[in-house]
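Q: Please design a sequence for this.
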């Protein structure tokens, strides 16, 4: 089991529980995570969902050495596309559209695939030590699969983070509007719980309608279409890697690993 799931006081708490490897995401973790979100969405006792992580880091992203868990012996762009479409795009969009408010509590490193766990949440509370980054340009790919960068950061800041690979501090993320609140590390869970408890006392139908209104406004502005189209652009990076280096592509992996030391 890579996920812990608890419900108390109208709040479902989903905890990433691979602290020994900085909560990297193998297929089993993502499937358990999606099952937890589905359970929370279906539970009438749950009003608010909190996503948190055990250990020093929120998530160091995809488990690159573990692979995507595609079926069959042959890795092709078709198998990569199918696996990533399900686990990295469909899951994130489903979490984003879950009709209940959600809060991500982020500490330490949140790298690449870690963003597709916190970005679908409605609110983000970050510890002062939180660092957000997407260094996958080092691998010859233009950004993580759920490409929310422009919406979360604005165009120029998104390009800066992608082009340089440098991490965004919690304070910078708060200034861009990506993070709602920055708190001391030892207060992360308690402050997140305070917000969740306050929201949990609001009328559930009103919360659902408010979330739907904001999400649909973003969709009218092009969010959903952009996420879908940029996912296809992402796949050209895999296609190039297959033709040049084979797969999985671990070009730049050492540089990426150094970013969580």
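A: Design:
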């Amino acid at each position: 089991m890579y996920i812990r799931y608890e419900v108390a006081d109208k709040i479902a708490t989903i905890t990433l529980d691979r602290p020994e490897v900085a909560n990297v995401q193998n297929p089993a973790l993502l499937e358990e995570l999606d099952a937890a979100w589905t359970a929370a969405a279906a539970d009438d006792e749950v009003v608010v969902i909190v996503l948190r992580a055990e250990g020093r880091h929120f998530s160091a992203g995809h488990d690159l050495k573990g692979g995507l868990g595609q079926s069959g012996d042959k890795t092709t762009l078709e198998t990569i596309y199918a696996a990533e479409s399900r686990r990295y795009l469909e899951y994130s969009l489903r979490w984003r559209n879950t009709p209940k408010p959600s809060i991500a509590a982020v500490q330490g490193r949140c790298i690449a695939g870690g963003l597709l766990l916190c970005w679908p949440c409605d609110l983000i509370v970050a510890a002062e030590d939180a660092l957000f980054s997407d260094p996958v340009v080092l691998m010859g790919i233009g950004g993580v699969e759920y490409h929310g960068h422009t919406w979360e950061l604005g165009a120029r800041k998104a390009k800066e983070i992608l082009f340089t690979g440098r991490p965004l501090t919690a304070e910078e993320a708060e200034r861009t509007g990506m993070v709602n609140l920055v708190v001391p590390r030892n207060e992360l869970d308690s402050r997140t719980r305070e917000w969740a408890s306050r929201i949990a006392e609001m009328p559930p139908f009103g919360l659902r309608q408010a979330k739907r209104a904001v999400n649909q406004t973003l969709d009218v502005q092009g969010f959903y279409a952009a996420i879908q189209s940029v996912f296809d652009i992402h796949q050209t990076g895999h296609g190039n890697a297959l033709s040049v280096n084979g797969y999985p592509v671990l070009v730049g992996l050492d540089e990426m690993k150094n970013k969580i030391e």
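Q: Thanks. Anything notable?
A: DSSP finds ten helices and nine strands in the chain. The chain has a mean pLDDT of 89.
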